[in-house]
Write a structure and sequence with these properties.
The complex is a heterodimer of chains A (about 300) and B (about 260). Chain A contains 13 helices and 2 strands, in the order H-H-H-H-H-H-E-E-H-H-H-H-H-H-H. Chain A is an all-alpha fold. In chain B, the strands form 3 sheets. Chain B has a 6-stranded mixed beta sheet with strand order 8-9-10-3-11-12, with helices on both faces. Bound molecules: adenosine-5'-diphosphate (ADP) and magnesium ion.
Chain lengths: ~300, ~260
């Protein structure tokens, strides 16, 4: 309702005429009804198909909180968080390098992004996992060990997923940094802040507003992409599920179990993403958008208010 | 008052044959001028004449190509040893900028910080001041520009005039010896121009050395101690604001003034 609404209302009643509620035939939305019927039809067909399918539904709740499944989910979460940490930190470094005036650092960053974005992540996982084939011994001077002992499935997964992610994060961060107005850098320099201080205190915090939303998507993607680590024996969710199905032959059932966990984890992250975006919108808009909780509370008060009026 | 001080010591800013080009395009074609301590020095001229570029050269946001430019007796951006010039490191350039405050046409406040945060940032980061010291001075400065009650507002919650006054307070927080103003009121609605000019007038009265690029001829006449008319990268005419504004000698000055007055 426009803010002027009630005033107009008052002036008419002041003129002596009681305001008359509008009685009009509402537009009929036939399309909505037809599509609703169609969707219900298709859904029930799918439902019937699954009900008759050879699925042993009972085992799904049994395995949902099975020991190895829960540990697999925890490992999926662990490798996702760690790989994203590597990706974000290295991505920011690469983005700053890419934008630096130094031609050596910017070329190095360009080459890194070119190599790691240009090859499939599954291939990269296999490369790390099989590194012992070309470097049988890892010798860091202060540390020396057999490569097969060092390059565990966990480390190979972390390197494969994290370093690949860094290339994508670098491009996201670069776009974010470039989105910050040049006047900001100029004002910061004019105050005497050094280039590093300007990047850390002025540019990056503002770039975050542009960086955070796609990073949230990357996080959710990583949750799912981490399932590729099953190919190099990392004990994540999909590996845990297939290990069970290879024993029990409940192949589809275990895939459903894994899917339920993936959905749960991605939902949690989506909520986190929402709050993070809100945090970095600070100063960009006059008023922050309400959180879902605030929205619910506002709707509830409005409802009860309406009831009292009625 | 400023006339008395003019005779003592070296000038605050001294430009001798300053040239600057962007690529092959010359923008400053030999600027000569002197700004005395405690002087309000007005720089006027048509758009594109190189006023902003000259200001930016003074705090080394741009590098000059030829000539000499010094602030408070020290070369900008170089160290002179014998008859050789050595470029200053980024860190040294940054250190020199802390003594020169700059106020921009588009304010350039940091949008992710409150007004108070904006004013506290440089003293803490650059001078390593403690939070409490920086905060105390920031609050005093915000009070001085009439914004004590807006300390915790973000820039988007302030009017243009308020933002520009915060920007002035931010520059003053570094206790500069020279303030550069690049068309500080050009982006403001007409009714907000006065509040910013009032703050600048107060600064002038307190003896701050100021270089002001402006189209506010009233301000120049009333507050200015010297005025330079620039066109196409050269100084066309210089003198006391009242003389230049009421009795311009050059055709180009006359043509420009007839448009802005
Ligand atoms: N970074 C830059 N690169 C190329 N040309 C520039 C740059 N900055 C300014 N110029 C040019 O220099 C000239 C003078 O600009 P400026 O100093 O902003 O003039 P004013 O402030 O007097 O309007 C203009 O023609 C402008 O296009
Ligand atoms: Mg300009």
């Amino acid at each position: 309702m426009p803010p002027g609404g009630p005033t107009v209302h008052k002036s008419t009643s002041a003129g002596g005429l009681p305001p008359q509620a509008i009685k009009a035939i509402p537009v009929r939305h036939y399309g909505r009804w037809i599509s609703a019927v169609l969707v219900l039809g298709v859904l029930s067909l799918i439902g019937v198909a699954f009900a008759n399918a050879d699925v042993n539904w009972n085992v799904i709740p049994d395995y949902l909180f099975f020991d190895t499944i829960v540990r697999g989910a925890a490992n999926t979460l662990l490798i996702t968080v760690l790989s994203m940490t590597v990706g974000v930190v290295l991505g920011i470094v690469l983005a700053v390098m890419r934008l630096s005036k130094n031609p050596v650092t910017s070329t190095v960053a360009w080459l890194y992004i070119y190599l790691f974005r240009g090859t499939p992540v599954l291939v990269q996982l296999f490369l790390w996992y099989n590194l012992a084939l070309i470097f049988p011994v890892l010798n860091l001077g202060f540390y020396k060990d057999e490569m097969t002992d060092v390059m565990t499935p966990f480390l190979a997964a972390l390197l494969g997923l994290g370093l690949n992610e860094a290339a994508y994060m670098a491009e996201i961060c670069r776009a974010g940094i470039q989105s910050v107005d040049e006047g900001q850098t100029e004002a910061s320099h004019a105050l005497g802040l050094t280039g590093t201080q300007t990047m850390r205190r002025i540019v990056l915090p503002q770039a975050m507003r542009v960086i955070v939303p796609p990073t949230g998507n990357e996080f959710i993607n990583m949750l799912k992409t981490s399932s590729l680590a099953y190919a190099i024996q990392y004990q994540e969710l999909l590996k845990a599920a297939t290990d069970i199905s290879s024993r029990t032959l409940a192949v589809m059932e275990m895939l459903f179990v894994a899917s339920i966990w993936y959905l749960f984890l991605t939902s949690i992250f989506s909520i986190g993403q929402y709050y993070l975006e809100r945090r970095f919108a600070r100063g960009a808009t006059r008023n922050l958008p309400p959180t879902p909780l605030q929205k619910i509370r506002a709707n509830l008060t409005r409802l009860s208010h309406r009831e009292r009026v009625a | 008052m400023s006339n008395m001080i003019k005779t003592s010591g070296h000038p605050m800013v001294k430009a001798e044959g300053v040239h600057k080009s962007f690529g092959l395009v010359p923008v400053l074609k030999g600027i000569d001028l002197e700004v005395q301590p405690q002087e309000v020095f007005c720089l006027v001229g048509p758009s594109g004449s190189g006023k902003s570029t000259f200001l930016r050269c003074i705090n080394h946001l741009e590098k000059i190509n030829a000539g000499r430019l010094s602030v408070d007796g020290e070369l900008v951006g170089y160290r002179e040893r014998g008859d050789r010039l050595y470029e200053l490191k980024d860190r040294e350039v940054a250190a020199k900028r802390r003594d020169i405050g700059m106020v921009f046409q588009r304010f350039n406040l940091f949008p992710h910080m409150t007004a108070l945060g904006n004013v506290m940032e440089a003293p803490i980061q650059v001078k390593g001041e403690s939070k409490s010291v920086a905060r105390e001075r920031a609050l005093k400065l915000l009070d001085r520009v009439g914004l004590a009650d807006k300390a915790h507002s973000y820039p988007t919650q302030l009017s243009g005039g308020q933002q520009q006054r915060v920007a002035i307070a931010r520059a003053l927080a570094m206790q500069p010896k020279l303030m550069l103003f690049d068309e500080p009121t050009s982006a403001l609605d007409p009714e907000l121009v006065g509040e910013v000019l009032d703050v600048m007038r107060g600064l002038a009265e307190d003896g701050m050395t100021m270089i002001v690029v402006t189209h506010e001829m009233g301000f120049a006449r009333e507050v200015g101690d010297a005025l330079v008319f620039m066109d196409d990268g050269v100084v066309v005419e210089a003198g006391h604001p009242r003389e230049v504004l009421t009795n311009p000698q050059h055709e180009r000055t006359k043509a420009f003034l007839s448009k802005v007055l």
